[in-house]
Every structure is written in structure tokens, then in C-alpha cells.
Amino acid sequence: MPQPFNKLTATAAPIMRGNIDTDVIIRIERLVGNSVRGTLGKWAFGSLRYLPDGSENPDFILNREPYRQAEILVTGPNFGCGSSREGAVWSLQEMGIRAVIGSGFGDIFFANCFQNGILPVVVDKRIVDSLAADIEATQGAGKVSIDLETQTIVSPSGQRHSFEIDPRRREGLLQGLDEVALTLMRDDEIRAFQASDRAARPWIHLARTSA
Amino acid sequence: MEKTGRTMLAKIWDQHVIARLSEDTDLLHVDRHLLHDLGGSRGLLDLKSRGLKVHNPELTFATPDHAISTAHGRAGTSKIGQDLLAALRAETAASGITMFDVDQPGQGIVHVIGPELGLSLPGVTIVCGDSHTCTHGGLGALAFGIGSSELTHVLATQALIQRRPKTLRARFEGKLPLGVTAKDMILALIGHIGAAGGTGYAVEYAGSTIRDLPIEGRLTICNLSIELGAKMGMVAPDETTFEFLRGRPYAPQGALWEQAVTAWRQLPSDPDAVFDREVVIDVEKIIPQVTWGISPEHVIGVDGRIPDPGAVDDPARRAAIETALEYMGLQAGAPIAGTPVDWVFIGSCTNSRLSDLRAAAEVARGRKVAAGVRAWVVPGSETIKREAVAEGLDKIFTEAGFEWREPGCSMCLAANGEVVAPGQRSVSTSNRNFVGRQGPRARTHLASPASAAASAIAGAITDVRMMGR
Questions:
Q1: Could you tell me the pTM of the whole model?
Q2: Whether A184 and B130 lie within 8 Å, measured CB to CB
């Protein structure tokens, strides 16, 4: 069940390279197994964060203070493209990230964020760039505020930007709603759909084999 | 109200709406749910921990592909891979879900077996915890990848909450030039509109070239939709589709078949349907494609030169090219052909079907893999493996020095210990040339099966048109 998201004022780290895919966010071998959750935070951005000998790459932004404390990422275009692995979101969450701000995200990554109570904010690329510049001007000391209720972000220098979000998803995040439980409340509708669809498209509804 | 034509997306979507949740978001029925070894048992265990049961086990199918070894006898499957396989067996059996197990017909890469078994049909909704689920759109299905949470939601409810995407029609027109394949067509489109060009859209591939393509080519095209950023890609069903599906194990039979085909003929977009975006590609201008960088949009014709960041004004684009060239160990401005390779990988949900193997074998026949190159052929399914063996393709490959493997995802994503070593260069028929995709610091060039086989023989990235076949 996702954590509710309401307001956040936190350190933000710009990672502005375009097309950062979910393979780069978390390598697949970290996700092989049924008990990987809780182990992923230190492996997020592994290929950027660590040198081949395993030591920290001092040039990578999330290895520098104060960005090490970041709870917000400001990202380049098409962040989270590629694989559907929800482990990408889990790994960000486990390293303390609660929101990502960018001009566009991979569709599946975007959906996975909401499932975990992470807020993805889509704003114009111009705003993303100015936010990143504003953060860098304070060497990361200036915090970014996000208010989901009023749909606004405030940059370190006090510039306010509003953002759009699907009202359903906004409500889900504000309340930390469990979609499975909500959909199961509609089980009568699901079963009614299946009954009428069985008449219209009988080839869809295969016979049940015994368990 | 003015009546306008409807897109295929709208027709399929509307047929699956259980409940309208908001202006643009619906609860959709899921007709087919496919599970694999990486996330299948995790989802079933998650469901169990919530005290829930699988809503429709008879609409759910499983197979191991991601984490199993493709070595003979599956030797080399890691301890965790073996645990995942055991868990998938136990949890599917407990839930009454059909699983196609290793060494059985039906096992294979999940996006290869769906079409092969006739589980993937026109007009069905198919989901799977894998982004390349868009592949099944090649048969006219509305198919897309989902995350782990959504996977649990589908197991519990046989439904999914989705926002209706925008529509993009990509029309390919013209006759395929010599040496140019479906893989080259879709790579060229990605190069043209970019890796985010389809984000937020469902893509419908249309035009004379698509109509002329056999189903396997259409599956390859749809497979790379996600590399355009589009979660869904589809091709309208036609006689080619029906012929492909007729008689497949899970396709409808007899009177039901006739009824289904009648319904499927209604699915194509109406002639006056309006798309949010249209792109037209002149296929006759395409030459065999190969990627040079770390995103599928980093693609050029095999006769082209590696981009020079110095010639690019936009600082972000310049930096992106510099980063890619550094990772790939390539020199700006040099011809891409002739770049020496260490590995060739023929396989994956993109290009591991029988026609892909035939195309590669045609190039490999009577030749030898260059010294110092390791070349693997990994068939997409147990059935394809057997068909290929029956027509002697395995012999052609092994005599040429390729390794002939067992079906699975293998080196496409390196979740199974099958990796390209750090710094080594591979020409791969897979779908992603991302940083580290085929192993830490591995360098991947995406290309068609014929181009990959040609590169294995030459020991360098090679224009297959120069191979004289």
C-alpha cells in the first residue's frame, strides 16, 4: 500500500542527462529473487554512483553533500524509459527519493511511481531547466518545495510554478489509496462484465482447469 | 453529433471497459495475463500475503524465460534462478495456472510463446510484467507491459486501471529494399522520432509495407514500440493474421473460429478515423540499420558515420553524444562499418523466431565465424528450437562456429549470468543498447539477424548487402 504524499520541502538533485533508463536506475541482477525489497537503496544508479573497483564515484551528484540528502530528483527528458521493472521505483524510494520532477517520464515508470507513493511531476522543460539552475546556484543548499494539494512547486529562489496532474491519481497519492482493495469493491461489476462478454466473445473465456 | 471514424485502439478499448473511473481513465478487463519467472511468483506470493486468490487462473499463463540459463541441460542457472523457477512451479500449481515448463513445447520467451500458442489474438487485452508485451500487438491485440503492483492488481481482479493513451499512426510505405528487414524499419522510425517520440501514445503501424509483412515481422515492429516510448503498438488484423492463427492450440476452433474472425474483421481503424499524430516513413530510403550509442534512438544506416559531437550546437545533445561515444569506445566521424566486435547475440523477444533464424542461417551457411568472435543463437521457444532443428538450421550455425542454445531471454538483459564482458562489443538482435544492459560496461549494437550474422562472419560491424546473398 503506498505512503500518502501531501507536501514536501527537501534537498533536490538535478540529474539532467536525457533518456536515463530503468536499467541505469537499477541493474537487473539486483532484482532477481523474491526478497529483494529493502536491499535496493544502495544499488540505485549503480553504474553512475560507483567506480569499477566498487568505490564511490566522487563526481556523481548523489555522492556529494548536500545532494546525498536529496528527497527530490530533477530529471532530464524521458527519465525512467525502458524496462517495466518496478524495482527502479523501489530503489529510488529506498535511497530516500519521494518525488521526481521532469519534462517527461517513461510511461510504465510513471505509473509505477504512483503505485508506491512517489510523486512524478511533469512540467515544461523550460521550468525543469530553470529549477536545476536555481538549485545549482545554491550548490544544493536551497530546498525545493512541492505541494500536491495546491499543485505548486517553489524553487530555492522562491519562484512558484504550478503543475497539472490527473485528479484521480492526485487523490490516490494524497490518501495513499490501495487500488487492489478499491477495485475489489467493484467485483460485482467485474463479474457482470465477464458474464456479458462471455456471450459476446466466447473464445476469450477459456475453461478453468482444476487446481 | 457528427459521426467520425473510430481507431482500432478505441474499438478494442471500449470493448473492455468494466467501469469508467474518470473522463479519461477506465477499469479495463484483462483477457490474457502472462507471467514469467522474474516477477510471476513474486506477484502470486504478494497476493497470498494479502489473503487473496487469483481471480481468473484460466486466463493466466506462465513460463520461465528471464532467469534460466540457456546452456544445454540448463546448466548454469543460478541458485536464485533455480529458486525462482521452483517458486513459479509451486505457486502456479497452487493457483491452477497453466505453466509451460522447461523442455516442454510451449516454453519460451513469453512474447514469443503468446503468439505461437494462439493465446495472443486480435482484439484481446494482454498484460505482462515486462515492457516488451507490446510485441503481441503484431496480431492486433492491445498489449502492454505493467509493473509489479499492477501485476498483483491483475491477479486479484482480472482488471486494470488505465488512462486512455493518445494515438499515433506510423505508416510505412513502399517495397523493402534488399537486406532491409522489419527490424531496420522500426529502428529507422525510432531514429526519426526519438526514444520519447511515442511517449503517451498507442502506436498503430500501417501502410503498404506493414500489410506485406508476415506476422513475425509485425511482431518485431511492435516489440520495439516501447523503445519509441510507446507502451502499446499494434497492427490491424487481416488475412495474414487469420492464417497465422488458424489451428494454434489456444486459438478458437470450428464455429467459434468463424465467429471470432467475423468479429476481428470489425477491428481495423475506420478509413476516416483521426489520429492525434501521423508519421510517414518511405521504406525505400531505408538501408540496414545499426545503433552506435546507448539509446535505441542512437541509430544510423550501416554505411553511415558515427556522429561528431563537435558538429552539434545544442549543448544537451552534444553532451549526450559525448557520453555515448565514451561509453561505447567509438571515434566521432569514423565509419560504423568495420568496427571490430567480440560478440554476436542472435535471440530475444525481438528477433528469435523461425524466420529470424532462417535469415541469419542464410548468411552463415558455409561460412565461418571470425576468429576471436563468440556468436550465440538462442531460439525464442522450445517449439522454434525443434522446428529449426528439423530443418537443419542448428547444423548450419554450429558448422559455422555459432553456439546453438536452449530457449530463453539469455544475453538480452543479462539476468541469468549470460553477459558480455566489461568493455567488450556485441552486435545483438535484441532491443536495448542501454548502458550495462548486456552486462556491466558491455557495449551493444542493435541490428537485424542477417546483419548480426554478417558481423559474426566478418568479425566487425558489416553491411549484410556486401555479403552477396
A1: 0.97
A2: no
